[in-house]
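haha ok so turns out i had the wrong file open the whole time. this is the CORRECT one, sorry everyone. sequence first:
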Amino acid sequence: MILDPLPLVLTIQISLCSTVLVVLLGTPLAWALARKRFWAKHLVDALVMQPMVIPPTVLGYYLLVLLGRDTLLGRFLENSLGLELVFTWRGGVIAAAVASLPLYVKPARSAIEGVDLAFEDVARLLGRSEWSVVRTVTLPLAWRGLVAGAVMAFARAMGDFGTTLMVMGSIGREKTVSIAIYEAWSSNDLARANILVAIVTVFSIAVLWSVSRLTGGKI
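then structure:
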C-alpha cells in the first residue's frame, strides 16, 4: 500500500498557517484579557472559549454563514480581493485557527498574568511606551506560556475534523489527515486508517510531552 503524502503535507501547511494567525490575533487578545479592564471583558472571554465547548459542526456552520459566497463578507472577499475561502485550503486555515484559538489564549493569558507588574512599572518609569513595555518586558517574561500555547494550537489544528470538514470540505485529494482517516475508515481501508491514526497519535503524545517539559507540568 502506498500512502498518499498530500493529506499530511496539507495538514502541516494548514496547521502552520493557522498557528501564525492564532499567535498574531491571540497575543494582543490574551494581553488585553490579562491586563485591561473593560465592560465586555467577560463576554469576550466567553466568546473566545466557545470553540472548546460547542460542537465543531456548529462552529463550522457559523463560519459558513459568515464566510460563504452568498454572504456580505464572502462576496466582498471574493469580488474585491479575489480571496475564496469556503471549500478551499484557506478556509481550512480559518477553521483551524478559530478552533485552536482558545488553546493559545488560555495559557498565553495565564503566562502574562504571571508576569510581576513591578517589572513593567520599572520600565514605564524609565520612559518606555506601553508597546515597548509589552514587547521588551511582558512577552519575553511570558515566553514559556506563549510557546506552549502556540504548540497546543498547532496540535489542535492538526487534529481538527468537524470544523475543517464543514468549511473546507473534502474534494479530490485536497483533505486533511483527520478527513483522510474518516474516509479511509468509511471505505474499509483499515490499513491506511491505522497508519494515519498511528502518525497522529505519536505526534499528539510528542506535543503534550513537549508542552509538559516546557511548562513544568503547569499547563
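The chain has one domain: 6-215.
again sry for the mixup
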